[in-house]
Amino acid sequence: MAMTQEKGTATFETYAIKPQLMEFGKSSTRLARTDLLSVGVQVIASGGETNLHAHGGEDATWIVLGGKARFYTTNDEVVAELGKFEGLVIPREAPYWFESADDSENLVIMRIGASAQNEPKRRIDHTPRQFATQADDDGLTRAIRDVKYVEGKFFGE
Fold it and tell me: pTM for this structure?
C-alpha cells in the first residue's frame, strides 16, 4: 500500500498502519525504509515468541499502538511496561526481548529504527532462538512461526 513520489532528489513514501489481527502467533510487516531509517509494525496475539537479543548498528524506538507490552533485558529484568501510545528507546547493542502483556487483545507495536553510520546492521542473539529462521531481503534472519489470522479483521478499522 506504500506509495512513493519523487520530489527533487528525495523520495517520499506513504504507508498505512493497518496490519491484520491474529488468533495466535506473531507477524511482522515492514512499512517503509530508507538507507538510514526503517519503519515496521508487529502484531502479537499472546506471549513474546522471541529471545534475548540486541541489534548492532541500529538504535530503535518501539511504540505501542494497541494492547500492552512488557520489555525485558538480561536476567529477565523488566525495563518497561507500556500501554497504548507509550514507547521505549533501545540503544544499539542493548539486549532485550518483549512480550504481549495482555491476553485480551493483540499487541500492535510499531518499530522505528535508525542506522548508525559506518556500522553494519546485525542481530546479536544472547539466548537461542525459539523458532526456525530464514533470511529476508536484507540478509537479516527472521523467525518462522505458526500463525492464524482473524479473517477480515485489521488494526485501526
Answer: 0.84
**With contact defined as beta carbons under 8 Å apart, do 81 and 109 qualify?**
no
CA distance 145 to 139: 18
**Residue 12: how many CA atoms within 13 Å on its side-chain side?**
5
- Gap between the Cα atoms of 86 and 138, Å rounded: 29
Residue 111 CA to residue 94 CA, distance in Å, equals 15
Residue with cell 511504540: 63
Query: Can you give the residue ranges of every domain in the chain?
Result: 29-118
User: What CATH class does 29-118 carry?
Assistant: mainly beta
- Give, for all 157 residues of the chain, the pLDDT tens digit: 455 555 556 688 999 999 999 988 888 999 999 999 999 999 999 876 689 999 999 999 999 999 999 999 999 999 999 999 999 999 999 999 999 999 899 999 999 999 999 999 999 999 887 654 455 665 555 555 678 889 999 998 8
